[in-house]
Q: What sequence folds into this?
């Protein structure tokens, strides 16, 4: 090993990935504790009860208003972009794009031959683009937390939008980690491998009555919608606590455990404060170093769940990341397409704030010796 970090500096757990992210040991052990679930039919009570627990737990955790429903399906958040393109955008979408993920959804609706050209409001990575009312737009879309850059935006309806326009919030890395008032949005969608510390492959969405009505109307019209991407089909299946096709049962087990863990510790308020404490530590540390600085300029836009720290050009972040990895500190690399000399740190609820502090001490140790 090129450099050994003293063990008393190392975090207890070295997983700081932005997704997939740290899975707690208890979640994995739960797979052994729940006989009669793994390897059983997703149409029978053991698995359906698990899905029911997840749906009720997510609704409670995120404070779903009356009439909102927790819906799920296979394919992760990327599949939900196609579901939304097909079933939630009637004629024209507007997107806030300030990083890879917001940009990907914008490309999905822009390419759809049955929609008018999407409006895309862009901002430089490291800042936040804001949706603005425009006539004829019936669906507005923005990330809650842009995982590729570490910038976050509050969930807020677009002032003066046309009546009935929907807001679609990509909360893949924000749900369960950032505060939210769901009355402010119509689709708050996410996947389990970020703040919920489970495994990938599913999408979940908390949908408003308006979103479900929109899907029913669009799907009753002439548009061809593959069954796998039909939101009304997903709603019908979710109401029966199942998915259209076979889900990864292990993901459900770990997700259910994480939701219970969060609720047992004080719910979303507890989780959000824990992430914010980790983030405060990381940003304060960076600001106190003359060779490191938070990438996101405006403090209010600095994500309290995925932190991005630029390093001075004289310090090779790739080398720092490689040494950290050799010492068991994993996945603090910048988003590949961003191409910056940067560390990116996932500070989801499962990550101990003390471990984030230990990580910063390890970076100091490595940089001092380069
Ligand atoms: C990870 C991520 C996605 C993609 O999620 P998948 O489940 O891998 O499709 C989408 N949006 C954001 C903001 C993400 O962080």
A:
């Amino acid at each position: 090993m090129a450099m050994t970090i003293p063990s008393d500096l190392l975090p207890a757990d070295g997983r700081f990935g932005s997704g997939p992210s740290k899975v707690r040991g208890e979640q994995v052990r739960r797979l052994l504790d729940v006989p009669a679930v793994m390897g059983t039919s997703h149409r029978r009570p053991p698995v359906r009860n698990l899905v029911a627990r997840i749906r009720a737990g997510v609704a409670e955790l995120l404070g779903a208003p009356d009439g909102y429903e927790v819906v799920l399906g296979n394919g992760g958040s990327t599949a939900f972009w196609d579901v939304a393109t097909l079933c939630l955008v009637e004629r024209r979408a507007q997107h806030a794009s300030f990083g890879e993920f917001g940009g990907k959804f914008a490309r999905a609706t822009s390419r759809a031959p049955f929609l008018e050209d999407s409006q895309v409001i862009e901002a430089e990575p490291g800042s936040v683009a804001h949706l603005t009312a425009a006539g004829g737009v019936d669906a507005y879309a923005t990330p809650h937390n842009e995982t590729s850059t570490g910038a976050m935006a509050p969930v807020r309806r677009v002032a003066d939008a046309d009546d009935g326009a929907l807001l679609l919030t990509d909360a893949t890395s924000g749900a369960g980690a950032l505060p939210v008032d769901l009355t402010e949005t119509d689709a708050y969608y996410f996947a389990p491998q970020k703040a919920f510390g489970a495994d990938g492959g599913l999408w979940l969405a908390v949908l408003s009555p308006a979103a479900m009505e929109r899907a029913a109307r669009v799907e009753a019209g002439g548009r061809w919608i593959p069954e796998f991407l039909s939101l009304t089909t997903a709603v019908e299946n979710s109401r029966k606590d199942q998915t259209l096709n076979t889900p990864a049962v292990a993901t459900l087990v770990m997700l259910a455990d994480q939701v219970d863990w969060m609720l047992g510790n004080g719910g979303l308020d507890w989780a959000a404060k824990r992430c914010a404490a980790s983030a405060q530590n990381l940003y304060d540390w960076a600001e106190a170093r003359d060779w490191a600085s938070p990438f996101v300029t405006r403090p209010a836009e600095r994500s309290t769940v995925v932190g991005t720290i630029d390093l001075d050009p004289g310090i090779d972040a790739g080398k720092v990341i490689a040494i950290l990895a050799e010492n068991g500190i994993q996945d603090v690399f910048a988003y590949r397409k961003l191409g910056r000399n940067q560390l990116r740190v996932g500070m989801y609820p499962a990550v101990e704030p003390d471990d984030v502090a230990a990580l910063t001490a390890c970076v100091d140790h490595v940089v001092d010796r380069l």
